Structures are given as C-alpha cells and as structure tokens.
Amino acid sequence: MAVVTVLRGVSHGRLPLLPHSQLPIVRPRNIAYRNRPNVLRVFVRYSQAQDLFTSRFQDRLENLPKLVEDIVQTSLSTGPRGALRLAQGVQAVVGVGSEWLQDVSKTANSSTGLPTQLQLGLLSPLYLRKLFERMGATYIKLGQFIASAPTLFPPEYVQEFQYCFDSAPAVPYEQIQTILREELGRPIDTVFEYIDPTPVASASIAQVHGARIRGTGEDVVIKVLKPGIEDILVADLNFIYIAARILEFLSPDLSRASLVAIVKDIRESMLEEVDFNKEATNVESFRSYLAAMGLTRQATAPKVYRQYSTKRVLTMERLYGVPLTDLDSIKSLVSSPETSLITALNVWFGSLLACESFHADVHAGNLWQLRDGRIGFLDFGIVGRISPKTWAAMEVFLQSIAIEDYESMASALIDMGATGKDVDSKAFARDLEKIFLSIQDLDTEIIVAAARDTSTNATTVAANVAFDERQMNALFLDVVRVSESYGLKFPREFALLMKQLLYFDRYTRLLAPNMNMYRDQRINVVSNQRQKNIYQ
C-alpha cells in the first residue's frame, strides 16, 4: 500500500520520491496541542456571544408583554381613522415617488452620476420634506419640530425643514363657522357681533380671525383649530410611536439613542400645541408673571376670554402694533426703539425662571411694538421649560459671551451637555471662538426706502431688517456640530434658548446697533436665586 501511495504522489508531482520510512510523520496530537489556545478562545467567544444573545432574548421576552400592551392600547385609541390615514399615506408616497422618478430620469444620462439627494430617494431631506407636506398637518408640525431641534437631527434635515414654517392654505370660512357653533354651543351671533371671514393668519393646524364681542364691543382674535386636525394628529402620532417602539424592541441599541423618548417629546409637544386650553394657561401664566413683577406698563400678552374659549377655540384680546423689525413704524410709536428692545429683553430674560414657562418662539410675528408703547408677546403655542442645571450653565455661557471668554463658554457647555468622555476644553474653546467671530461678520440686510411727500416736500425714510432664518439656524448648527464632535449632547431647552437669543441678536442689529446685549448694564440676566426671591 505504501509503495502505491508514493507512486501516486510522484505521478501527480505532489510528494518527492522518498522511501516510506522518510515520509513526514503526521502527529495529530501535536497539532491539537498547538491549536488548543485558539480553540479555547473561539469557544470562550462563542460562549460569551451565546450568553449575550440569551440575555438579550430574555430581556426582549420580558419586554414583549409591555410592547404588545402599548400596541393594543395605541391601536384602540387610533380606531378606524388609522386605515384612512394609511391610504392617504400611500397616496402621498406614490405622489412624491413619482416626482423622484421624474427627477432621476432627467439626470440618468449625466456623466457625473446621480446627485446625493436622488441617491437617498424619499429619505433625502428634500423629498422627505415634500412627503411631509403632502401628509398634512401632523407631518408639517413634525417638520417644524425637526427644524427647531438641531441638537437631535442632522443639519441637512434641519435646514431643509425650515420651509415647513411657510404659511398654510386657509380653510373655507364656512367650516370655521361650523366649528365655532359646535364649540360655543350657541348661535355665533349671540357671542360675536362681527367676525371677519378673511383670516388674519393661517398655519398648519389653526387659523385666526378678527372679531368683535357682542355687547362690550371689544376687539378680539379667534384662533380656531382646523377641522379634522385632532383625528389626523392622533392617528399619525400613534403610528409614529408604535413604529419607534417596535424598532427599539427589535434593535435594543436604538434605546441608547433615546428613539422612543424623542418620539414621546415630539408627541407631547405637538398635542400640547393643539390643546388651546394649555395655550390659554401659558398666556395667563405669563400675564401673572408680568403683574407680579410690576411689568404691566412695559409689556403685555393678550387677555384670554375663557368663557368663549375651548380646547379647539381660543378667544383673545386683539393687540394692535407692528413687528419688532419694522423700524420706521416703531419710530412713529416710540421715541427710543433701543429702549423698547431693552424692555423686551429684560421681560423675556426674567420669564426664564420667574414664569412657569418661557416664550420659545419670539420671531418678529410674535413680538410687537404696540401702539400704546408697550411690548406685546403673542402666540404661546410653543413654550419652553428650563431646569435649574441648564440655567446655571446658561448664565455662565451668557456671561462668557459678554466678555468673550471662550474657555468659560466651553466649560459652561460641557456642564450643560451630557457626555461620557473627557473633553479637551481648550481645543473646544478655540473652535467656539472661530464660530462666534464669524457671527460678528454676518450680513444683516437693512432695507432703507426714501419717499418724498409732494405736498410738504418732506422726505420720509423707512427701514426694515431682513435676514435669512436659514442662515441664523446655520450659526446655531455650527455650535451644535462642534459640540457634538467633542461628545456633547444638549437638552432640547438649550436649542430653544439659543434660537431666541439669535432672534434678539437680529433685533439688536436694527434697533440698537451700538449696543452689546450681553454687556449692557441695562439688561438684567439675574441669577436663579435672586429671580426666585423677587418673584416670591
């Protein structure tokens, strides 16, 4: 047998021609001995992986009843409207998908290939925003949430979803009348002497009409929830919540990203915004703060008429004035626009801790110079609540901006942000300095127009400020992006605070260009304890 084996080896060129006694001796036990450590390591890793799988499987089994309970309860609360929204969702996906296919076909023969937007399909910022707009109110509000939360979402999406803030088409007045009759529980003309059928404003979830109360003749505005919005919101938010719960159940790693927590935050924020009883409470809380601080001669918020308000209808005092960006009109109302700005700043800063919530949307449409000289705060649908820890860090942050101490600024942001690693504060400070120096170089376009009155030969000059809100958000995104590169994650209230500060920065450039709002002694950013003592 041995000779046959050798001859076969020679014939195939596999072994040298050696006598049988000189052939290599294979010792299986030696091979096993040499490989034993590797075998042990593989076995240990397999055992560890098996233990991890078993542990995760047991965790999932333990969490399964809760998941099923959540799905059942959420589905029951959604009811048959869920099926309708599913059909509408399919229609929206088909519509935007068709747009995407058309755009792909236009660039199919391009030598540069498909742009990134097209490669991502419906998940790209552009097409996802278009899909949200087709899906209606809930997803438009969700888009606004994304646009306002740069600490939670990628910058490309934050920028694209700024378009969700554009005004929405108005609902026919006949539908508004139907809602008013249902909510008031009596004929409309027994409450209101007159309602303007043309809305003052129309947003994704509500529209506002001017009116006059019968008997007293008081001018008011009526904010009315658009028809069907509640059903749509409940169905959509429940679907998003269930999807998040299932994703987190299937992939536990997502729980570290707080997916369900983020969805809950969105859900609570949006449902709170469509409950006008809560908005009424926010307004009344702010008015109480103004009264307690003796600020009613300097600023105001609309009086709420509770007897004519419900969850879907909010009747408020009508305030007359101009946005805080209309310099010419402001000058016709007050002698010092700078003083008005300082008043607005002091009132807002004071509310951060002395009020149950602070106004978290002070864009020009919600902050007015009133005809009676006061500052008017409007629309309390979006408010923020700040924790003592965040405010303590925010105070240091603001003080560091005032004196341009970027190391203190970095330390404050590190204290505010959650991080699991050491942060190089000096390098962080250098990066922050670059960002804030670029803010000073921003171009704010001040539009000046001159007109001559032919009868008096006098020249009047009108000035207004125009700035791109996307540019403003880009600044904040730079701060967030640099902070995240150091492992920092900020609470959402920080994003709300920063955005309001950027609004005020723009107002300062127009109304008080020589004033530094962080250094000026007339602006009071008081400490936590002092503010509480004043309010008590």
From TrEMBL:
Pfam families: ABC1 (PF03109). It comes from Solanum stoloniferum. Residues 166-411 form the ABC1 atypical kinase-like domain. PANTHER family: ABC1 FAMILY PROTEIN, OS07G0227800 PROTEIN. InterPro entries: ABC1_dom (IPR004147), Kinase-like_dom_sf (IPR011009), Mito_struct-func_regulator (IPR051130). This is ABC1 atypical kinase-like domain-containing protein.
